[in-house]
Amino acid sequence: MTTVNVNNTAHTFSKSPTIKEVLEKLNISSNGIAVALDNNVLPKSKWEEPLSNHVNILIIKATQGG
């Protein structure tokens, strides 16, 4: 089992998930978001790499307004 913290909420997976798998499980669209892994911005090219146990993920959604 692997546990990852997404925006300060723990989520458990049966195996080490990728960012894409985390987004799918949480029903979050990959459009208009930025992802930070342990306070470092993670480029989309790295979103398919397995995550470590107890990693901290911050997902920021872009919003439009004025």
The separation of the N and C termini measures 43 Å
Biggest sheet, spatial arrangement of strands: 2-1-5-3-4
How is the biggest beta sheet arranged?
5 strands, mixed
Q: What percent of the residues sit in helical stretches (DSSP H or I)?
A: 10-25%
Order of helices and strands: EEHEEE
Rg measurement, Å: 12 Å
Number of helices: 1
Uncertain runs are none
- Class computed from helices, strands and strand pairing: mainly beta
Strand % is: 25-35%
- What shape does the CA trace take? globular
What is the count of β-strands? 5
Give descriptors for this structure.
single chain, 66 residues, mainly beta, five-stranded mixed beta sheet, 5 strands, globular
Question: How would you summarize what this structure contains?
Answer:
The protein is mainly β and 66 residues long.
Description of the molecule:
The protein has 66 residues and is mainly beta. The N and C termini lie far apart (43 Å). The mean pLDDT is 94.
Please give the structural blueprint.
Elements: E1 2-6, E2 9-13, H1 19-25, E3 33-37, E4 40-41, E5 56-61
Parallel strand pairs: 1-5
Antiparallel strand pairs: 1-2, 3-4, 3-5
